[in-house]
Amino acid sequence: MMILKKIFSAPALCVPALLLSLLTFNGCSDEFSSVGSQLLNKENSTVKALDSVIDSLNVSRTNFKEIKALGTSTTFLIGRYNDLTSYTLLKFDCYNSDLVSALKNDSITVVSATMKLTPQYQYGDTLSSFGFQAHLVNEFWDPYQFTADSLDRISYNKTDLIIEKNVADTPYTFKLDQQTVLGWMKYDAVDSGNVANHGIMLEPSRGINKVVGFYGVSYYNDAPPVMEVIYVKTGSAPDTITFDAIYDVHAVTSPEAETSSPYLILQSGVTYSSRLFFDISSIPKSAVINSAELLLTIDTTQSKFSADVYKELRAYAVTDSSKNYYTSSGAVTLTPSGNVYSGKFTSYAAVWHAKGSNLGIVITPALQNVGLEKFVFYGFDAADVNKRPRLKIIYSVFN
Length: 399
Prior knowledge:
Layout: H1 2-8, H2 15-26, H3 33-39, E1 45-51, E2 59-65, E3 75-81, E4 84-92, H4 100-104, E5 108-117, E6 119-124, E7 132-136, E8 162-166, E9 172-176, H5 178-190, E10 200-204, E11 210-215, E12 226-233, E13 239-253, E14 264-267, E15 272-278, E16 288-297, E17 313-320, E18 325-326, E19 332-337, E20 340-344, H6 346-355, E21 361-365, E22 374-377, E23 390-398
Antiparallel strand pairs: 1-23, 2-15, 3-4, 3-11, 4-10, 4-13, 5-9, 5-12, 6-11, 7-10, 8-9, 12-13, 14-22, 15-21, 16-20, 16-23, 17-18, 17-19, 17-21, 19-20
Helix pairs in contact: 2-6
């Protein structure tokens, strides 16, 4: 305690350095704001506020679109809704050691092959019809690298492999072309054959107006994709084997971000994000940041969510504003209360102030790779000033 007392008795110019050193050890936690609260009790300090709605600050907003691989999602999406279209690539492991010899001798016939997908998410017009085609993929793809930009480059056959479907019951079932599945089994068993197993592309049918999410390949899913194959060995009775899916990835095509929109537009799956900038350089260099909070007001008439979704947001520090690059760690969470999202930005504001470097923040959905949830927030030009993005900073100035 004697050390703190000695520091607080030092000239005011030393205080920001103290906070910066504390921040270096504490990362982006708001824990060090307790130092600011102690400073509030000093008789030689004055507490002031900076409010982006009340004070004249230089502020800006930019909407942009990111291109991300969505292979880490536990759900894959297929469908069309307005100007969004979601495709899925899916691959099954068709190897079974007990069948290798028979496959080498061409003594197996596939009677039927039924792909089973379990839906758990819907977005758009839930009463709309639903369907898709399955196309044979001709080349290798990486679920952790494949993006919407990859769709134009992937090679696949135009023929639909689905010969029968049932989307009235759960799981949805799709009978696939038997010869194609037999080709996959041969390829996986002996690494040869007429049909290489690079999986299938699931392309949504035209005329539908909803997107359906299915349980994907994940340790956390109880109903991942499977393919049930009924086959016959020469001279034997029919038997059944189940193959598990081993890879999936979905990719969503969409228009470019609405850069001219006065709103902040965020959307998972696509993925749309927004960059915000607040100029806080009017705070004196010798001041200490005690607290900071960001508030965003959502426009519920333009936003769209499915039921029971995770509606939190994340904010990240910008590292290159010209390219909309931002950090992947140290995120601040914004949580909703009614129509207002809020998050504690004490750490960010303290760093901006102490270092004199502020490139702004990027706001994204907390789960960028899950679903298609759309968040629309009022921008800096909102007619109701209280709905504008609002940064409130409390700081102390020493006499």
